[in-house]
From TrEMBL:
Residues 282-349 form the Protein FecR C-terminal domain. The keyword Transport does not apply. It comes from Dyadobacter beijingensis. This is FecR family protein. Residues 141-233 form the FecR protein domain. The chain crosses the membrane at residues 102-120. The lineage of its organism: Bacteria, Pseudomonadati, Bacteroidota, Cytophagia, Cytophagales. Gene3D superfamilies: 2.60.120.1440, 3.55.50.30. Keywords: Membrane, Transmembrane, Transmembrane helix.
Amino acid sequence: MEAHKYDRFGYKDFVLDDDFRAWLNGTAPENDHWWEKWLLANPSRHTEIEKARKIVHALDFQGRPVPTYDIEQQWKRLESSMAESGGAKAEEQPRRRISLGWVFRLTAAACVVAGAFFFMNRYLAGRDVPAVVSVPVEHKAANGQQRKLVLPDGTRVMLNAGSAISYPETFAANVRKVTLTGEAFFDVKRNEKAPFVITTGDVVTKVLGTSFNIRAYPENKAVQVAVVEGKVKVNAKIGSVDQNACVFLTKSEMATFQQEAGELIVSTYDEKEQIGWKDGMLYFQKADFKSTLIRLERWYGVQFEVAPGMRLDADWRFSGKFQDKPLDYVLGVMSYPNRFSYKIHNNTVNLH
């Protein structure tokens, strides 16, 4: 694509441009990065781009060229409709600083578009995906269980304990959307014409075909995406719709979205800590008492009852690696030397 030709484009030119429409409709995901860089370098074109986006979503091209007068009439109708509904443009929101990992500040800068109305509308709400009559499918892995799944497109998923995934019975032709709560390892079947998109709260992960792990348990107040193979794109919503960030990850890299701090940080990761679970490994690294009990409840399918008078040092932290070990063994290591006593009865563990 010739970058300079777009510098002079108005909204009508964008509407008639095949490459622009292909990118907007998600049929050319290989050009995502190119367009995002161009938008960042050309903020003066955002108004024309937004007009073109609305027109493209309003018109049904059906593979035929659209005369210029149709575009002008369509824009007039859209302006009239927006005016009647209370104003053609929303006030610009003040932008908050987005904190990103220092290693990937330059990469992230190419993704964070000033006034990112276009980016998130396209991926989260504004895309016109052909309607598919489909029954939602949901799978859960209860505490103490793990489940292996094969999705309709051939993608393999392993759900960790206390997790759930939902997706349509039949994926749309141009996008494969799933929703995840908890943790799962994905081995995505490659399909360049239909990106695989996982939503976990305010984080959207997009791939064409690769393997990676997503951890999004509610109590962690963070979403982590760790890449094993391939390339992954992670979008995080920070504040209002105009405040978003994205990063591109490759092998051995991880994105962590801290929900309370509003930060998207990129780093390397410890393979045992992030994906050891799928091979039966329970791994702790300086975990506090509360989070340790939550993980043990989920992993072993038990309920802890802590005696009212039981006290632990507030600075107590637990580290350990356990491969297919019973709960009694793990508790024995945790309690040494005489930190607490425990008694296991069926699915209840009393600590005192």
